[in-house]
Design brief:
By secondary structure, this protein is α+β, with helices and mostly antiparallel strands. The chain has a domain of about 60 residues: NE0471 N-terminal domain-like, CATH 3.30.2020. About 30% of the residues lie in helices and about 35% in strands. A three-stranded antiparallel sheet has the order 1-2-3, with no helix packed on it. The chain is globular and about 35 Å long. The relative contact order is 0.16.
Length: about 80
């Protein structure tokens, strides 16, 4: 898997077949992360999801394919953001 960070988008090339690009604004934790935090990622299981352990962020490949945005509530995100300061 190849990860690309382009301005406020990130892309995934899956299985060397297709490339998915979505706005970082769909995933506020990634949008507010440092480049170093974004680059620290790993695949989970057999590649069913991507995890950013420094951010406690998990994005399922199925969700990326379906075009689903983060389901995190604004309140939860604000708590997460406050915990980083």
């Amino acid at each position: 898997m190849i990860r690309n960070w382009i301005a406020e988008y990130f892309g995934e090339r899956l299985f060397s077949v297709f490339h998915i690009v979505v706005p970082l604004s769909w995933y506020p934790s990634l949008l507010n992360a440092s480049p170093k935090e974004r680059e620290n990622w790993q695949l989970l299981g057999d590649g069913y999801a991507i995890e950013w352990p420094d951010l406690d962020e998990h994005i399922g490949i199925e969700g990326l394919l379906a075009g689903r945005r983060s389901g995190e509530s604004q309140k939860s995100f604000q708590r997460w953001l406050a915990s980083r300061q």
